[in-house]
Amino acid sequence: MKEEVIFPVILCGGSGTRLWPLSRESYPKQFINLNSKSDKSLLQQTQERLQDLRNISDPILICNERHRFIVAEQMREINIKPNSIILETEGKNTAPAITLAALNSLDISNDPILIILASDHQIKNNINFLKSLDSAIDLARQNKVVTFGVIPTSAETGYGYIESFQELNVQTLEGCDIKRFIEKPQKSIAEEFLKDSRYSWNSGMFVFKASVIINELEKYSPQIVKCCRDAINKIVNDLDFLRLNEEIFSKCPSVSIDVAVMEKTKIGCVVPLDACWSDIGSLKSLWEYEDKNAQGNLIQGNVLLKNVDRSFFRSEKRLLVGLGVKDLIALETDDVTLIANKEFSQEIKELVNEMKLNGIDEATNHKKGHRPWGNYLSIAKDNGWQVKILEVNPGASLSLQKHHHRSEHWIVVQGKALVKIGEKENILSENQSTYIPIGVKHQLSNPGELTLRVIEVQSGDYLGEDDIVRFEDIYGRKKP
């Protein structure tokens, strides 16, 4: 009998504010390399851990408008061409995202099996993960709705739990019928769960046939299916992306798949997973997950420590020195230094919310901005001026644009630049520069095979990224 095609579905939403300042809304944790033993982002690792699976197809990815080019570029870097990148016009939790992917997969293939994965999880033991996944796929072929129950290693209060009718067996990896889902428990209750093999951490990963999950959604949450089907029917192809109808999708309920289906379905089961899994939900959990030295310290980057114990020190550039401290988190980025007691790491999200209310830009944005043509890094600014480094990928171009409030100087420090100002075009080589007056149409392109690096000096009464009027753009952008 011919085996079904298997589609990975990777959910790429989320802002990861508990890992601030490493993760921010402009560039959240799923796009960052947090694993010291890998040079790939969490999203890329999520895709690559499936590469040895039989009958695996290219993925369907669900993300938001802001991160679409980051998702596409990170897939390109690992030589993956997604079946679809679906753009949600607003975050609606996991049930609508999974519904969209299921409906889309049925347009591509005849009732494929879907593997639903979050883009920001870590799994150390990929062999054990694939063994559990094989068991889940077999159950999905039997029209089961399958989730993974992670075998608890501690009385964790930051995870939800699954109670099964039978004890989970990591040797046989048999699926067990689900009795109930439990929200994040108090410490005393979590300690009791730890003693009972029927309880497991809720991983938020699933396996099922596309037709089966649609049937269950229509049974228990029909409004979600209706809204998603209507939005899919009005979908617009935009370069590498599928753009939903904003008006239709806005009416879709915002519900998790647990609430929409898993807590109600009669065909749900849980497969045990013992693979060193973590959702890296805080800086403390990152410290716990990663390998540490003899003193219990996680050290990343340019760091020097003496008489330091059980701490997490990470520096992206400057030398970060620690002396005579313990249980500390010390992080240095381009624009932020965080010092925190490790036990307070769950409260970072509230701290970020306070910064947002006070209009602090660092709460949500990195100094480095990622664009479809490359990236820019703000290296210095004051009232009326700003200096950036632009890196433009080979063959890429910024949009043909103008600014109402600023002029710009461009200085080429690496590569060659094709510069259009008004009706004139010129090639600039290293150490050459040009000036763009306020209100004049201009465009910067990289005609070479190497990355183009340009120093941009902005001057004007307003320097915001929204002061861009685009006339032509190969990436289909209408606004920044």
3D structure, described in words:
Helices cover 22% and strands 34% of the residues. It has a 6-stranded antiparallel β-sheet with strand order 18-19-20-27-22-25, with no helix packed on it. A 5-stranded mixed β-barrel has the order 6-9-7-8-12. A hairpin with a 4-residue loop joins strand 16 and strand 17. Helix 3 packs across helix 6 and helix 6 crosses helix 7. The protein starts with 5 loop residues before the first strand and ends in an 8-residue tail after the last strand.
Can you lay out the helices and strands and say which pair or pack?
Blueprint (H helix, E strand, L loop, with lengths): L5 E6 L30 H7 L11 E5 L3 H10 L6 E5 L5 H15 L4 E6 L3 E2 L2 H16 L3 E6 L10 E4 L11 E7 L4 H8 L4 E11 H11 L1 H12 L2 E3 L2 E3 L2 H4 L7 H6 L5 E6 L3 E2 L4 H7 L8 E9 L5 E12 L4 E5 L4 E5 L6 H10 L10 E4 L2 E9 L2 E8 L7 E3 L3 E9 L2 E5 L2 E5 L4 E4 L5 E4 L6 E9 L8 E4 L8
